[in-house]
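Table S4 entry, ParM/StbA family protein.
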Amino acid sequence: MERLNFLAVDLGNSWYKALASDQGMVCEYQIPNAIAQYDGEFYEKPYDDEDVVFEENLIVEVKSPAIVDKREIFYIGKAAAKQRDVSLTTINNQKVDEDRTYILLFALAAYHAVLLNPEETVLSYTIDQLAVSLPTTQYKEKKDSFKQRLIGTHSVIFHKVPGTAEPKELVVKLHVKDVIVGAEGACAYLGLTRDQATLGIKDESLISESRKGIIIGDLGGDSVDFVGIKNNKPVASVEGEQFGINQFLDNIIQKISKNELYKFDSRSELEEKLSAGQSEWFVEPFAGVRKDISKYIIPQLKSMAMKYLEHFDRVRSSSNEVKGAARYIAVGGAAKLAQREIQEAAVKWSERGRPIDLLFPEDMEKLNVLGLMVLAKMNQFKKENGINVAHVAAKVKG
């Protein structure tokens, strides 16, 4: 399998996170889940190409059977987040049915291909195994149609590419040979328990605890998804509770804009500041003027933390399959950002006599994409050896 190309993409409402393995070489990416219409008339031409970072200037045109209108051009990721007409995700967005899913996914894969082949202006890139995730209800209802729309050949044209000759375009033909779709949350469990290289079990204690039950709470941008694991298998799911970090980010942005006269370009800009730590929690609305914004951030994170635990408590009380679960696990970038506040809120729950002892695993913000990469490799192993994918990890040696 080392000679093959694998791509795993977590299709998050806030970020698309990708893990690519090309003949053993591993690359990681993340771009904001943002898209905006491109209009050449209003394109701000830079003074010099050296002033432009390609990742922050992704302007794409996607031609694919999966997309309805194949003539439109879009800003995506950080470039889109800076536009006035930026389109962000809505709660309960239907990923399989929306063109934005395919535009962002194929463009991210093509961007990776361009970085691997920096001297080429027209290139082909084959993905032997593509693994993507869906929320549990969408997974149950639409995984097969999603897979069929992803398999095949898709063309991505990058426009206004810095450092290239006129017409400043790069063309990438993507060839997706096989696809496997995973359920969010359940993929995180795979990422927790399976080794990336061998696919073997790396956490026997967690496997053991799954006999009594495990609840994983995946806190995202617009929703929180819960998956119950018992005897090493998903047994219950509560999808799409309309609660996530985005509403709290919006509150922070609005308060800072009103009180400090500073406007963030996007939620992703604020999230990156939060990820950098409290030492970076300031803005400069005017040159030489530095404003501490922690007083706007901390109350919102505390509010989110308390409501996150309320959701956890409701799920553990209502799900017969995982009553008496031995372990509760926090997953997702939003949970990582608010880890301190969630732990403080958990103390209050203990004082109420309803303790929620949460595990905050390493790489908790990347567990879904790590699990998807495991799933992709398992699927390829099954394909090559004709073995049931459920038994692959126990048998594969490397």
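Confidence is low (pLDDT under 50) at residues 389-398.
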